[in-house]
Each structure stands twice: as C-alpha cells, then as structure tokens.
Design brief:
The protein is mostly beta strands. Helix content is about 0%, strand content about 50%. The strands form three sheets. The protein has a six-stranded antiparallel sheet, with no helix packed on it. Strands 4-5 form a two-stranded antiparallel ribbon. A two-stranded antiparallel ribbon has the order 9-10. A hairpin with a 4-residue loop joins strand 2 and strand 3. It starts with 9 loop residues before the first strand and ends in a 7-residue tail after the last strand.
C-alpha cells in the first residue's frame, strides 16, 4: 500500500496558529522526510525551532554547535497535499490505471488529487 504523503510532495499546513500569531498555518513547503512509524513529516521551512547544541571544535579548529534553527517534524494530519492544478490543499485518492510499455499492458496504482482528479 502506498503512502498518501511522500518525500518530495508539496504540502500545505492546514492546522495550528495563523502566521500573524507566529504559526505556520497556510504555509506551503516540500516534504524532506516521512516518519511512517510515528505518522510525522519533516517539511522544508515549516515548524522551525531553535536548538541549543554543545559548542565544540572540529578537526580543523572551527567551532561547531551553539544555537541552530532547524525544522521539527509535524503530525501528518496537520498537512495536506497541494493540488497541482489549483495550488490549494486537497485530499488524496488512489486509482488503478493501465499503462502500455513495450507491448505489455500493466495496471499501476496511481495517487491523484481528489479536487481536480489530476495524478500526483
């Protein structure tokens, strides 16, 4: 069974605080990583947190660590895939399509945007 949200998908945050209150609702970003065991996704530029790491030195003598700003994972239910046609969030469905390659007919399971019907 395929996942509804995969690495590389363009998603939009559909819950949480609005941007004027310091949140990320309505923002769009690309999925960097999916954590299926905890139902979470890491989205580029979304849910940024400040992380304090111990300051050390690399082999060349440059300082590492300090305060870093990194993305934190979001729950998968708080994001929706962006429809490629309307650029708005949509639900995802699956359908089987027949594909012919080198004279061989195959049925392939395809993800599609429910709003426009376009394959993802």
């Amino acid at each position: 069974m395929g996942a509804k949200i995969q690495k590389g998908d363009l998603v939009q945050v559909i819950s949480g605080a609005k941007p004027e209150r310091g949140g990320d609702r309505g923002k769009q970003g690309k999925v960097l990583k999916v954590f299926p065991q905890s139902n979470r996704v890491l989205v580029e530029g979304i849910n940024r947190i400040t992380k304090h790491t111990k300051v050390g030195q690399s082999a060349r003598g440059t300082k590492t660590g300090g305060i870093e700003v990194v993305e934190a994972p979001l729950h998968i239910s708080n994001v929706a895939i962006v429809d490629p046609e309307t650029k708005k969030p949509t639900r995802v469905g699956f359908r089987e399509e027949t594909v012919e390659k080198d004279g061989v007919t195959k049925t392939v399971r395809v993800r599609y945007a429910k709003a426009s019907g376009k394959a993802l």
